[in-house]
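re: that chain from earlier
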Amino acid sequence: MARGILRIIFTGDDLARVRVASRADPMWELVTSLQRLQAGDGGAAMTGWRREARANLAEAGLLPEVRELLLPLAPRARYFPDFLTPIEAQQGMGSGLGALLDTPPSRVRKEMELLRAHSGLPGRLEDLARATPRSMRELGRVAGGYWQAALAGHWGTVERVVSRERGMLVRHLAEGGVEQMLSMLPATRWRAPVLEIDYPAGGREVRLAGRGLVVVPSYFCRVAPVTLADPSLPPVLIYPVPRRNQPSPQAKDALAELLGRTRARVLRCIALAPGCSTTELARRAGLPPSSASEHARVLRQAGLIASIRHANLMLHQVTEIGDRLADDM
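^ sequence. v structure.
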């Protein structure tokens, strides 16, 4: 597979319009998980997920359809159709599937021909390449079934990992601005006004031209950051979240006892909603604001969280050690 450099070129307006996705993107996770299903990468966590996903798909009777329809649509190659990852999915899986089914037939046919040129089309995809209503309904049915069997039970982990990474980005944004945040993205190089990425899909250049960029941390993206093939679509950059080791059950029990139930709950809330304000923390933890502020003060003095003042808000973020403790609870 030819590698190259992806160069994303910013203007001043683009820097002002960079934003971090508010949640894990279910359609991007679906596509990248299909690529992980075909690969042997990702370490022990992905090995366990693949084993469970294949078992669940077999039990649901979906494994042959996933192999014949979905896997060839998301090959570990230079190209897969952009219509598989509609931006509406940032509102949730239902919105993403709805947008997928509403893709104009002309666009489906165009992108399927691009897939044919890059990877070929196995027999099951020929009908989809004609973008018939029946073939699109079939795609929606199999994609929805795959989601339920392979991803739904794992989605809490995906959301937590992505939420934690999002909080790190928000912290860099609050401390040093958007350029500091861009410089901290893994597997990238910020050389103003260009973000450079070693890209498995060959060299290319994307000019944002005032449209801004949505940065999307991803659980199942493992090899390198990826973006849409069509430069006319709203620009997004999907990148792999760094992984951490899982805690032991013994550590979980001991740390919960050490911190106490209420303070442990406050730490968990900050880990799950990094960058949250004291008011939001109080709401999430079910505490009066004064009590939430006091618990945050103690956690901050213990080095488990960091707090940053941004305008008139105090924003809270777990530190590395606090993150590890939150994983244990």
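The longest strand covers residues 4-9.
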